[in-house]
Each structure stands twice: as structure tokens, then as C-alpha cells.
Design a protein that fits this description.
Blueprint lengths: L5 H6 L7 E4 L3 E5 L7 E7 L14 H17 L7 E4 L15 E5 L12
Antiparallel strand pairs: 1-2, 2-3, 3-5, 4-5
Bound molecules: 2'-deoxyguanosine-5'-monophosphate.
The site of 2'-deoxyguanosine-5'-monophosphate has 13 residues, from strand 2.
């Protein structure tokens, strides 16, 4: 496992970020390049590079990620209208940061799920 990622530095508050939630398992902060009025990244505090690296040990933490996603959607006031949760894995998904993260997007109609390059 890598010892450090951009997001683990945010988790340890060594890099600035607009953190909206943190506990002993996960950290949530606003995306630097928001694609919707609400665009928050929720990351396990532990480095898991991609979904391909998930093990049974991570079940509780990743389940918790969903609980926190709902909680944040509620506090952002977007739970009733709806929102999108998205996790990119690897090259074809354009994953940029190799520290597993869930995107929470909402605050406007998000349209069809995928815009594919032609
Ligand atoms: P992905 O393509 O799924 O790996 O998305 C990475 C996201 O991370 C992308 O939407 C931009 C965001 N991001 C990259 N660097 C930073 C940063 O330094 N701070 C914050 N808050 N977000 C970042």
C-alpha cells in the first residue's frame, strides 16, 4: 500500500481542504473542481488505492461511507430531490487520485449518467 496520497494528506490536515465531515473511519471534503452545486468527496481515512484493492477487512468502513453520504446529503439539503454517488476505478474510468473516493453530487438535475467521449 502507498504510504501517502493527496487525500491522505487532506485526511491528516496537512493540506488545506473544505472538510465537511470527519470521524475515525472517513473524511469528506468539497471537490476542488465542483461539477454540481454540491460536489463532495468521501474517502476512507485508510488508503485503499482503487475498488480493485478492497478486501473483506474494508466492509465496515465502506458501508459507513454510504451512511455518511446520506448524512451529508441530508445536511446539504439535497436528500429529497436526489443525488448521485460515483466511484471511479482505474484508467478507463479516468480515476485521477489513487485513494478510493466516493463523489457525492447534487443540487441540480444531473442528467443522464454518462457523457461518453465520441
Ligand atoms: P477521480 O477522477 O474520481 O479520481 O476524481 C478526483 C477528484 O479529486 C476530482 O474531481 C478533483 C478532485 N481533486 C483533485 N485534487 C484535489 C485537491 O487537492 N483537493 C480537493 N478538494 N479535491 C481535489
Amino acid at each position: 500500500m502507498p504510504e501517502d496520497t493527496l487525500f491522505s494528506k487532506i485526511v491528516r490536515r496537512e493540506l488545506p481542504a473544505d472538510i465537511v465531515f470527519q470521524d475515525d473511519q472517513v473524511t469528506a471534503f468539497r471537490d476542488i473542481n465542483p461539477q454540481a452545486p454540491t460536489h463532495i468527496l468521501i474517502v476512507p481515512n485508510k488508503i485503499i488505492p482503487t475498488v480493485n484493492d478492497v478486501t473483506r477487512e474494508d466492509e465496515a468502513t465502506l458501508g459507513h461511507l454510504f451512511i455518511v453520504a446520506h448524512q451529508i446529503a441530508k445536511s446539504e439539503g439535497i436528500d429529497t430531490d436526489g443525488y448521485r454517488l460515483l466511484i471511479n476505478c482505474g484508467q478507463h474510468a479516468n480515476q485521477e487520485v489513487f485513494h478510493l473516493h466516493m463523489h457525492l453530487l447534487g443540487g441540480r438535475p444531473l442528467g443522464p449518467m454518462l457523457k461518453l467521449p465520441s
